Amino acid sequence: MADFDLVVIGSGPAGEWGAVRAAMAGKRVVVVERESVPGGTAANTGTIPSKTLRETALHLSGLKARGLYSVETTLRHEATVSDFLYRERRVKNIERERILRNLAHHGVEIVRGTGSLADAHTVVVKSESAPERRLTGDFILVATGSSPYRPPLYPFGDPRVHDSDEVLDIGQLPRSLVVVGGGVIGCEYACMFAALGIPVTLVEVKPELLPFLDDEMSALLGQRMEALGIRLRFGLTVEKVDVPSAPDAPVRLTLSSGETLDTDQVLVASGRSANTKGLGLEALGVKVGSRGQVEVDPTFQTAVPHVYAVGDVVGFPALASTSMEQARIAVEHAFGLGNTRTLATVLPYGIYTIPEVSMAGETEEALRKQQVPYVVGRASFASNPRGQIIGDTHGLLKLLFHRESLKLLGVHVLGEQASELVHVGLTALLTGATTQLFVETCFNYPTLSEAYKMAAINALDQLKQCTV
Ligand SMILES: Cc1cc2nc3c(=O)[nH]c(=O)nc-3n(C[C@H](O)[C@H](O)[C@H](O)COP(=O)(O)OP(=O)(O)OC[C@H]3O[C@@H](n4cnc5c(N)ncnc54)[C@H](O)[C@@H]3O)c2cc1C
Ligand SMILES: NC(=O)c1ccc[n+]([C@@H]2O[C@H](COP(=O)([O-])OP(=O)(O)OC[C@H]3O[C@@H](n4cnc5c(N)ncnc54)[C@H](O)[C@@H]3O)[C@@H](O)[C@H]2O)c1
């Protein structure tokens, strides 16, 4: 008999929730983690730290007060790096403790060390502080996550050049910053540093920000980022990086256009690679892609039936939210638990820029491509009493409905609380709701959620079907 029913490699959101789901069903579970702290990217270098820093940046900058009092406040005081990082350190420690409690509460053992697969049922764990261990399991869950991709052009290791892990260890706030990559990480950090009053330039090789967003929302986000003081340079890449030896001298980046940018610090956010190196997956017959991502079927089973892989290690969408769900589905599939067979068909995206953007379902561009007839309903936060009260007058809720059935097809929000607000629309999408749901629902007043009713009425108005 194997030592465990399930051996999990990695204690990020995928590993934690996969382990807990199996343990809740009475399975014997062990989690192998190579770091001295649990929680992976989500707790330590990604989700939780960056979202905490966003709140700190908003607080230190007094930015929220600007909309309320129409005053151009500068920083409440000259923020130091320890001001900036103080809450980030606190919140991530609390999250690490929560994970340890959660695993202990469900009787999940944690083994410290780097895991690799010796065969399809055996994980070898190596660490500098303990003898090698061999853990056998009926099933193996690979949840090893991802790491920042480091293009060879950049001299990482220099205190002025960071990836998204190292930016959490900066010695001092930059006097100016160039962010390379206008993906989610690049946009979120560009906004945070700009909110602190730091001049930020963002260089993105594509012609727009976050092309998976609805075009209107992507353009609106770009406008709001420019209003925050961020210089957006699209369709360009960095071709040369000169880092002078004098620590105070600026770093010089030469762009593909020939333009040069002198900057105090650089943040490179040009994608991530899956953590599969040294795991021994290929030797077992498990396929991995160009950035290391493991190939899985919709139940997250690899080519080796009792080896599953979930979270960032399988690539897109590479979110903490989806990683946890993938782990639940994999474990339920492995042990024949529950009824869920695949990941939900509609997934939300929450982007914690300033302002936030969130979406679920289809974009206008996708509907046009599929030749689906649709009508758009918009409600601006400026015409929403709560929007006026909180001073967020640039926000927008945009709903896409099928032109004939009036079924909701897509929800897009930009503004304060967008990543929370989207859930009303997400639930409506998952239940196949139409405009009727929003028109007939009594929303709390004054709230931003009430914008759903206004957007639905706006859509009906355009079809001349308004009944209210
Ligand atoms: C800056 C940033 C901001 C983000 N913001 C958000 C957000 O707002 N919302 C959102 O949903 N997602 C966000 N993400 C993405 C999110 O953090 C990841 O999708 C999520 O952490 C993936 O979870 P995971 O469990 O697959 O991997 P990870 O969290 O990376 O955990 C993997 C774990 O496996 C361990 N490990 C790796 N190899 C081995 C080995 N051989 N042996 C033992 N242990 C090993 C690692 O040490 C790590 O602890 C963000 C990411 C970044 C970088
Ligand atoms: N709120 C959230 O959900 C959240 C927040 C942060 C990160 N994440 C996750 O983290 C992952 C990684 O994010 P990321 O932003 O690093 O990667 P990404 O792949 O999403 O974006 C990288 C961007 O860099 C650009 N780029 C690549 N090389 C370039 C170059 N040489 N010059 C200029 N631009 C270049 C790409 O065109 C792309 O837009 C994402 O998959 C995302 O799911 C999620």
Automatic annotation (TrEMBL):
Q: Which residues form the Pyridine nucleotide-disulphide oxidoreductase dimerisation domain?
A: 348-455
Segments forming domain FAD/NAD(P)-binding: 4-327
Give GO terms: molecular function aspect only.
dihydrolipoyl dehydrogenase (NADH) activity; flavin adenine dinucleotide binding; NAD(P)+ transhydrogenase (Si-specific) activity
Residues where NAD(+) binds: G181, G182, G183, V184, I185, G186, C187, E188, E204, G271
Pfam family for this entry, one:
Pyr_redox_dim
PANTHER family (alphabetical): DISULFIDE OXIDOREDUCTASE (PTHR22912), SOLUBLE PYRIDINE NUCLEOTIDE TRANSHYDROGENASE (PTHR22912:SF93)
Q: Which family does it belong to?
A: Belongs to the class-I pyridine nucleotide-disulfide oxidoreductase family.
Q: What is this protein called?
A: Soluble pyridine nucleotide transhydrogenase
Give the organism the record lists: Pyxidicoccus fallax
